[in-house]
Amino acid sequence: MSAAAPAAVSRPDADGSRTPTDAADLTLGAGDLIEVSVFDVPEFSNLKARIPSSGAITLPLLGAVSAAGLTAGELQSVIRLRLQEKYMHDPQVSIFVTEHKSQRIFVSGAVKSPGPHELVGRVRLADALAMAGGLTDEAGRSVQVIRKRADAPTAPAVATVIDLDKLATAKDEVNLELQAGDIVEVARAGSYYVGGEVTRAGSFYLKARTTVAQATVNAGGVKDVADWDDVRLYRRRPDGSTEVQTFSLNEFENGKPSPELQADDVVVVGKSALKVFLYSVRDFFKFGVGASMSII
Length: 296
Prior knowledge:
By secondary structure, this protein is α+β, with helices and mostly antiparallel strands. It folds into three domains: 27-99, wza like domain (wza like fold), CATH 3.30.1950; 104-188, Outer membrane lipoprotein wza domain like (Outer membrane lipoprotein wza fold like), CATH 3.10.560.10; 191-275, Outer membrane lipoprotein wza fold like, CATH 3.10.560.10. The chain is built from six helices and 17 strands. It has helices at 72-86, 125-131, 164-167, 212-218, 249-253, 273-295; strands at 9-12, 18-21, 33-38, 47-50, 56-59, 63-66, 93-99, 104-109, 115-118, 139-147, 158-163, 183-188, 191-196, 202-205, 226-236, 242-247, 266-271. The strands form five sheets. It has a five-stranded mixed beta sheet with strand order 9-8-12-10-11. A five-stranded mixed beta sheet has the order 14-13-17-15-16. It has a three-stranded antiparallel beta sheet with strand order 4-3-7, with helices on one face. It is rod-shaped. It starts with 8 loop residues before the first strand and ends with a helix. Mean pLDDT is 83; it is low at 1-21 and 289-296.
């Protein structure tokens, strides 16, 4: 019996295509469950062993065998050589990794299925987000990969922040290859509020770069009585005070840059007293006079 090959998985390459890889080069560790078989040896018939914290498994005939830190293929070779030394000429050893608990990543934040996920083969950041069910509606603009330093386990973990828009291009420089123990955290989007004379006042996720002018459009546009020259932006300062700025939609339409919103900003579109008066006069002549004539 030849060694059982671990199941193949796929991952995105730099050009966005997917190519198969296997899990043969992933190292074993504490918590992994493996199945060892040796052809025509009853003592090794689908023998299951979970690797303990010591890293060594106990097998019939051989006793303790160090498994942690080896790949499945390397452990297979070790067992084969140990059996050759004392018991048989050409043992056919097969190892299958049933659970790869030592090779896990954790995905959290604005994803549909947060939690631990096993690394089966090489997994990149985009793969991890797909394994977690994809992004939720409240996902922000960035994702960070938090990784412990292998050369300094007691040192603070290193966080790499990646723009989700850039990740969509699937380039290798941002679509990082993940390692066991990595934490992937998708930032939740902040929100802003649009009120006053707009069609749909309320809170909106700040999922992309949004300007004051775009915020009014996202709120369904301004009402007929809106004062285009009275658009106020309320922003909380670090000291807790509130900064108020006034802008003009007319100026934005004429080419003036519209400022970009930040999380927790409030945009309020004012009401034009002149427009209110003019629309009242119009409605009076449109409805009031007509009603009077019908009564007469």
